[in-house]
Specification:
The chain has about 425 residues and is α/β, with parallel strands linked by helices. The chain contains 14 helices and 14 strands.
């Protein structure tokens, strides 16, 4: 008999070399395709029903169809090779997460004190070295309730996305967190700002998708994403009865024929809304403005966005609307939000990835800002960064502390934003975009 208890973390994965991000992306998205096929119940025999993609070029447009046609979806692979040896546990870590349990899961550190990466070429230094030499981190954010708010009197920023920037600053600058320069970016200009070097990292409600990972449309290049630090989804709110009309996708009943939904241009929400509603029911909203302002201005009677975008707090604070309001219960998209870096600097992307993961690890291990010295020392990034994980947690706390400080009052923690801790629940989560 095989024990059902797990006593260590051993997430197994494909491995590729640094320096060829397109190949690494290709490998990752083929695997995502196998998960995706299982999630939507497409099997080896029905693989032709899967969608195509041209992000890797026309010659690979059928890549997911061909992969599933060859070997089946992930469940079929598991049944064929592992089920007789290690039966797949219902709701175990090797199952698809449908959104009802936590996905916050830190990757194991291994041996973080075994050597260090060699210094980068003086002619082509890593952004990590550039930032430390410059003396401050440039962080792209978006002014939204809970995520990033600027005090009008002091000019100080606060919010969940702000805390992740401060954690990076502390990790780079020996615990100092006031070495961050924040730039508020709209949905339409965020990737361009990162590509042009105006910011070092995006920490602003950006969804991980296939296209953005491989070939982001506005810049024509791919980007690197850390593990998601917030799981969101397309939600609706509105003036009664229009909030319910939008939530139930009703545009035909007598009370819903005048439905007008404001949604921010340049977002995954806009793309999804365009797929499910007639154009006459959609009011495109400038990415430079708060979408909830449309209610007060009379441009629309419903709004679409993330669960925080449509929250009553955001409607009142940033939209100025204080009248009757209802929020729907549907979540029509998967929107894992993550830190974003340029794809061509693996050292900097890895640094951001592991600082982000360390905040989750700290919560798992019961380490908070007061006990941050219990975090491991790490030599992999060089002598200047041995305390990077300790400094990050000391500065902003663990993931739970960040969430409680910024989000809990408006969006009580639950579902995917919970820890996936012992006994581990479903950890396979097909990313959107396929």
């Amino acid at each position: 008999a095989v024990s059902s208890n797990l006593y260590s973390k051993e997430p197994l994965a494909f491995v590729t070399r640094d320096g060829d991000p397109q190949w690494s992306d290709f490998v990752n998205w083929v695997l995502q395709g196998l998960f995706h096929a299982e999630e939507i119940s497409i099997t080896q025999s029905t693989a032709a029903l899967l969608g195509t993609t041209t992000v890797f070029g026309e010659e690979f447009s059928n890549m997911i169809i061909d992969a599933v046609s060859a070997v089946g979806n992930y469940a079929e692979l598991y049944d064929r090779h592992l089920e007789d040896i290690v039966p797949r546990q219902t709701n175990g870590p090797n199952t698809i997460n449908t959104g009802s349990s936590g996905l916050m899961y830190s990757m194991p550190f291994g041996n973080p004190n075994r050597g260090a990466v060699p210094p980068s070429d003086e002619q082509n230094p890593s952004r990590l070295e550039i930032i430390r030499e410059r003396g401050f981190l440039r962080c792209g954010i978006s002014e939204r309730a809970i995520f990033a708010i600027q005090d009008p009197d002091t000019g100080e920023w606060s919010g969940q996305d702000v805390d992740f920037c401060r954690a990076l600053s502390a990790a780079i600058f020996d615990g100092v967190t006031n070495t961050v320069r924040f730039t508020s970016l709209s949905a339409t200009d965020r990737f361009g700002a990162l590509q042009q070097g105006d910011v070092d990292v995006l920490s602003r409600i950006t969804t991980v998708t296939l296209a953005r990972d491989v070939l982001e449309p506005s810049t024509g290049q791919g980007f690197s994403f850390a593990q998601p630090n917030f799981y969101d989804g397309l939600s609706f709110g509105g003036i009664p009865p229009y909030g319910d009309c939008a939530d139930t996708l009703d545009t035909r009943s007598d009370q819903c024929t005048d439905l007008r939904i404001c949604v921010t241009e340049g977002t995954t929400f806009f793309q999804r809304l365009s797929d499910i509603f007639p154009s006459e029911n959609i009011v495109p909203w400038s990415a430079d403005l708060f979408v909830v302002q449309g209610l007060q201005e009379g441009a629309c009677n419903a709004v679409a966005g993330g669960i925080i975008d449509v929250s009553r707090t955001n409607v009142v604070t940033n939209g100025g609307y204080t009248g009757p309001y209802q929020i729907g219960s549907s979540r029509l998209t998967k929107d894992p939000l993550a830190l974003v870096t340029l794809q061509d600097d693996q050292l900097w992307s890895s640094f951001v990835y592991w600082v982000n993961s360390a905040l989750v690890y700290a919560e798992e291990a019961g380490i908070d800002s007061a006990s941050s010295n219990d975090m491991p020392l790490i030599s992999l990034f060089g002598d200047s960064y041995t305390r990077m994980l300790r400094e990050a947690v000391a500065a902003v706390g663990n993931f739970g502390e960040i969430y409680n400080r910024n989000v809990e009052a408006d969006v009580p923690r639950g579902g995917l934003n919970e820890l996936n801790a012992v006994p581990y629940g479903p950890q396979l989560y097909p990313l959107p975009g396929l």
